[in-house]
């Protein structure tokens, strides 16, 4: 009988010791299960309007910087470039004509003083200046047309993953309207939401450990990069009929707010794939 009591007492002490050790470890090293994987998301936006005539990628495909994503019908912009070049040639011809007329008038005035009035010479000079300005304008229009033609080929601005591709060949895209998302594979970080009572002793560059819910056998090492300075207010926001939203709460319960802490990952194993929005546990070692 005494042996059973002794075993029970030993197990109780061991459990209490383990619990106290775990509590002390948590107190010294804040931990939260409310973490999420984040990354920079680039909205791929065409610079010109038109019909998609070719799509070079598939949904959820990895792409490298400079890879072709899709092509907007280039024909209208090829025609616009030809028109701009024709207008440039016409402007050059008019400039050449104005310079010849000024040259003849200047030569005649040099041979016979008073043969050409000062007003006429001024008009010839003004015509040359105006023609030169038109040439500059035509040159700018050619460059703009060349840019627009180059914009018909939309390429990846960085390495990453194409996500939520819903367009297809024949779809109409509008300039400056997002078409698809590209997740920058070099920008992943983890954002842990810690209780405000836990962040008093947190500081930048403190080491942190991250465990993904999708791969709990791997611990990722990182460090605190920054701590949020504000969160959105819930109570008092405008609801229906322009009335404030106020959530009911118990007066004797005061819940700690959650403050976002950004954790920069030092290295990610090749067999671990980070995904935006994935759940993670974060522990900061003080």
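-> sequence recovered:
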């Amino acid at each position: 009988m005494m042996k059973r009591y002794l075993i029970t007492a030993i197990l109780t002490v061991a459990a209490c010791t383990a619990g106290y050790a775990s509590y002390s470890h948590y107190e010294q090293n804040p931990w939260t299960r409310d973490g999420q994987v984040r990354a920079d998301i680039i909205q791929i936006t065409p610079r010109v309007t038109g019909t998609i005539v070719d799509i070079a990628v598939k949904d959820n495909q990895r792409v490298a910087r400079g890879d072709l994503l899709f092509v907007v019908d280039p024909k209208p912009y090829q025609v616009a470039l030809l028109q701009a070049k024709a207008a440039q040639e016409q402007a050059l011809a008019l400039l050449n004509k104005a310079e010849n007329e000024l040259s003849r008038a200047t030569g005649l005035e040099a041979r016979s003083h008073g043969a050409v009035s000062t007003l006429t010479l001024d008009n010839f000079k003004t015509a040359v200046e105006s023609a030169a300005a038109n040439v500059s304008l035509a040159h700018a229009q050619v460059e703009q047309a060349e840019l627009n033609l180059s914009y018909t080929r939309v390429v990846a601005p960085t390495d990453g993953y194409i996500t939520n591709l819903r367009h297809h060949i024949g779809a109409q895209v509008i300039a400056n309207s997002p078409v698809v998302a590209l997740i920058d594979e070099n920008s992943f970080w983890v954002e842990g939401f810690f209780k405000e009572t836990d962040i008093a002793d947190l500081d930048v560059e403190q080491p942190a450990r991250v465990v993904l819910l999708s791969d709990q056998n791997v611990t990722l090492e990182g460090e605190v990069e920054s701590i949020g300075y504000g969160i959105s207010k819930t109570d008092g926001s405008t609801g229906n009929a322009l009335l404030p939203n106020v959530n009911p709460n118990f007066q004797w319960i005061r819940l700690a707010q959650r403050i976002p802490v950004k954790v920069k990952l030092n290295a990610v194993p090749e067999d671990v794939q980070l995904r935006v929005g994935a759940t993670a546990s974060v522990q900061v070692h003080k």
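The helical segments are 2-28, 75-111, 118-150.
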